[in-house]
Amino acid sequence: MSEPARRFPWAPGVSTGLGSLPGSDVVEAVSFVLDTVPEFAYLPELPARGLGADMIGRTASLLVELPMEWQPHGWTVTGAAGQDLRRARDFLHRDLDAITEHGAGLDVLKVQVTGPVTLAANAELPNLHKVLSDHGAFRDLSESLAEGVRLHLAELASRLPGTALVLQLDEPSLPAALSGSVPTPSGYGTVRSISRSVAGPALQRVLAGASPGSRTVHCCAADVPFDLLVSSGADAVAIDFALLNKANLDSVGEIVDAGTSLWLGVVPSSDAELSFAAARERVFGLWRRLGFDDALLAGTVVPTPACGLAGASPGYARRATKLLRDVGRSLLDGAEPSRS
Fold first, then answer.
1. Is the pTM above the cut of 0.85?
2. I need a surface site. Which of 17, 18, 222, 253 has the fewest CB within 10 A?
3. Are 41 and 34 in contact (CB under 8 A)?
4. What is the CATH architecture assignment of 26-328?
5. Mean pLDDT computed over 34-51
């Protein structure tokens, strides 16, 4: 493996979170992130605040000329914005104010957005079909999202001049959409599969809103389509270590060899026993299996939780984040951990 061709805005030996945290106080959450992982900070998401702070509602607030509202069956495309969308926009505005006030001088800030496929797999049309089931509606949604992400990043750039912005697209539903296993709203059937030739350009449109080297896709599901993500413009892929298997290990090696950063979820996202040694060994163990030089590890792998931490207790979220920070820094040693 040669040195990665791309240079990422984050430094070697850092860790980061995947977005969500427990609690409802955004200033407290921002302060925690800035105190714990200032080298690779992220805009925290707090779904415990309620409707509009959830991942679908939060991303719906970014859409341009495509309003959504909460209906009894879920977030639904509507003709005009209502109180639910206004609430989602208000949450996001408060979050941006908090990071603007407390995050001046940050080198790097990551923001998370639900990806177009997962958004379409969860949002519905007025006829109660998933957006994903209508290719025309899906294209409209992905174009609206792409413009919304571009404007979102532009606003952040104006609020935090000099800070490099990293975009993370959350795509947990992508494998199910490709395999045709997304359930219909009734739950009695599944939405027809979406082809890679449709999903890829949608991902590419949204990722294009971020600068090259700053585009990440997070997929905490089995059967991650690594090649599709990289061909769509992802500079980094975030995955759950526990879902790796022999079938996808070769794919991981291929994208890493091509210069893609690997964000590796090495601690559980909900309360569990934590071990620095075990988390670090997961990183080094995978690196050994892939056969790459230890000297390249810190510049390629970013330790993360397996998924968001919204379902964890506040104490666990703090401990897990600090442990991951220490794991990341330890990778700079460039040597395998002791097996004694």
1. yes
2. 222
3. yes
4. Alpha-Beta Barrel (3.20)
5. 97
